[in-house]
UniProtKB/TrEMBL annotation:
<feature type="region of interest" description="Disordered">
    <location>
        <begin position="409"/>
        <end position="430"/>
    </location>
</feature>
<dbReference type="GO" id="GO:0051698">
    <property type="term" value="F:saccharopine oxidase activity"/>
</dbReference>
<keyword id="KW-0274">FAD</keyword>
<dbReference type="Pfam" id="PF01266">
    <property type="entry name" value="DAO"/>
</dbReference>
<feature type="compositionally biased region" description="Polar residues">
    <location>
        <begin position="410"/>
        <end position="424"/>
    </location>
</feature>
<keyword id="KW-0560">Oxidoreductase</keyword>
<comment type="similarity">
    <text>Belongs to the MSOX/MTOX family.</text>
</comment>
<dbReference type="InterPro" id="IPR045170">
    <property type="entry name" value="MTOX"/>
</dbReference>
<dbReference type="GO" id="GO:0050660">
    <property type="term" value="F:flavin adenine dinucleotide binding"/>
</dbReference>
<dbReference type="InterPro" id="IPR006076">
    <property type="entry name" value="FAD-dep_OxRdtase"/>
</dbReference>
<dbReference type="InterPro" id="IPR036188">
    <property type="entry name" value="FAD/NAD-bd_sf"/>
</dbReference>
<protein>
    <recommendedName>
        <fullName>FAD dependent oxidoreductase domain-containing protein</fullName>
    </recommendedName>
</protein>
<feature type="domain" description="FAD dependent oxidoreductase">
    <location>
        <begin position="11"/>
        <end position="387"/>
    </location>
</feature>
<dbReference type="GO" id="GO:0008115">
    <property type="term" value="F:sarcosine oxidase activity"/>
</dbReference>
<keyword id="KW-0285">Flavoprotein</keyword>
């Protein structure tokens, strides 16, 4: 165990996405002088990172107070810390169903509101919104009918410009002396290197595609949806899954009246954000159960496509949800071409809990950060603390973040709507 005064171990972080960057920054800010980050892309933010995006929702309402408390802490940092503040926009979060949503989908909101209203952080922040008239009070710029929209508006929420925030953390890491190695040859890890020390199996480093070997006292994997590729024993706990993301291009004149609109999630259709300041692009995502890609794998794992080009489409159904939403909210843009189509990959767990733990049988030498389940970006300002904690304690004490016994996971419950039609190779594409 490392104490305050003993020398800090050397640390190798694989993956410079949201969680790898957050970890590198916290460690480098806490006296760790030997931190190296390996990343397969040759730029940061990586084009493979789920966080390399115009925006991500920052909100704290969860059915589980554990995540609410953490998200509230993260939001305080988004609001005040000079590193994150420039990238945070507290426009509020409008979470509704449209008129045509199934009754069951509409019903969920009552229970949900009761549960979040019990938390002190939301006092005076959350209000119900029913019907077009009330919607237009919250978002006067919505010119479409929005008839029968119903749900709630939360003022303690908004979005972060996630690519810019990632870049800011990367720059701060470089300033603190973190060593980044980027690119396919020297930055893409293809193998973990093990040794037997005093008859114990220990991960002593990694090997890259170009056969470079890096050694460190502690190896931390932050590979997003790619992680089961490197440690297949994680396969039963984590599934690589994706959602389709698109933009529409607005002119500066078209974007101006939409400045300041809340992040809006029409649960049965899609969610969208205020136009991006730099590009005037509006982002849309239909967030269903997520799509898998088991087709390419030999060992029963769902993994992202290796080439970026192969992820440049969205499911055809997603396009029709987005068109319907445009009719409802911005009919003037209903026929605008959908551009920048791509799949955004995340690491999904059955209970949506993160996995932040030592890999078994590695003598506490190898840590995995995984299972973001599509809600990990908001934690950027505090995520590194979670990792520092277990690095210094030598174990994970938070049960829900522990490495789970794989056989148990496999036999219980069903994953987020697992059906054959969610497999990418079997669906029509747009
Ligand atoms: C469509 C979509 C919407 C989302 N919306 C939200 C939201 O609104 N709010 C929110 O909080 N979160 C959201 N998320 C989730 C958020 O983006 C993720 O939780 C977060 O990015 C996870 O960080 P990560 O570091 O684990 O993975 P990533 O950010 O994906 O980073 C993984 C990194 O590992 C690198 N890598 C992979 N394999 C290798 C290798 N072999 N060698 C070296 N490097 C490698 C990749 O290039 C990448 O840079 C969303 C995700 C998606 C897909
Ligand atoms: C939106 O509200 C529904 C309940 O109406 C809830 O189940 C869902 O988690 C909320 N979405 C977000 C992103 O908070
Ligand atoms: C392996 O773990 C044991 C017991 O925790 C510890 O004493 C030893 O130093 C570790 N070995 C290595 C190489 O980390």
């Amino acid at each position: 165990m490392t104490t305050q005064d003993s020398p800090k171990p050397s640390v190798l972080i694989v993956g410079a996405g949201c969680w790898g960057l957050a970890t590198a920054y916290t460690l480098a800010s806490s006296g760790y002088t030997k931190v190296t980050v390996l990343e397969k892309d040759d730029v940061v933010p990586s084009r493979f990172s789920a966080g390399n995006d115009l925006n991500k929702v920052i909100r704290a309402e969860y059915a589980d107070n554990f995540y609410t408390d953490l998200s509230v802490r993260a939001i305080r940092k988004w609001q005040t810390d000079p590193l994150y503040k420039p990238h945070f926009h507290q426009n509020g979060f409008l979470n509704v169903t449209s008129e045509s949503a199934p009754q069951a989908t509409k019903d969920v909101v009552t229970n949900y509101l009761t549960s979040i209203r019990g938390h002190p952080a939301f006092e005076g922040q959350v209000s119900t919104v029913h019907g077009a008239e009330e919607i237009k009070k919250v978002a006067p710029a919505f010119t479409g009918p929005t008839a029968g929209w119903s749900g709630y508006f939360n003022k303690l929420a908004g979005y972060a410009h996630s690519a810019d925030a990632s870049k800011a953390v990367y720059d701060a890491c470089v300033k603190l002396g973190v060593n980044f190695v980027l690119g396919r040859d020297n930055g893409e890890v293809t193998e973990l290197v093990y040794d037997t020390i005093s008859s114990r199996r220990v991960c002593v480093g990694v090997k890259t595609r170009g056969n470079q070997i890096y050694h460190a006292d502690k190896v931390i994997l932050a590979l997003g949806a790619d992680v089961p590729g490197l440690i297949p024993q994680l396969g039963p706990q984590v599934t690589g899954r994706c959602w389709g993301v698109v933009h529409i291009q607005l002119t500066p004149e078209e974007a101006r009246p939409l400045r300041g609109i809340p992040v809006t999630n029409v649960r049965d259709l899609a969610f969208f954000f205020e136009p991006d300041e730099a590009t005037n692009k509006l982002k849309f995502c239909h967030m269903g159960g997520g799509f898998t890609n088991f087709a390419l794998s030999q060992n029963g794992l769902s993994l992202p496509y290796e080439k970026l080009e192969d992820s440049q489409f969205i499911p055809l159904d997603d396009e029709s949800y987005i068109r319907k939403l445009l009719q409802e909210v911005f009919p003037q843009f209903a026929d605008r071409p959908l551009i920048d189509k791509h799949l955004c990959w995340f690491a999904d767990t059955i209970d949506s809990d993160y996995i932040i733990d030592y890999v078994p049988d590695t003598n506490s030498s190898l840590i995995v950060l995984s299972g973001d389940s599509g809600h990990g970006f908001k934690m950027l300002p505090i995520f590194g603390e979670f990792v520092k904690e277990i690095l210094e304690r030598g174990s994970q004490n938070i049960a829900k973040w522990q490495w789970k016994d794989d056989t148990k996971q496999k036999s219980t419950g069903t994953w987020r709507g697992d059906t054959a039609t969610q497999e990418l190779s079997k669906i029509p594409r747009a």
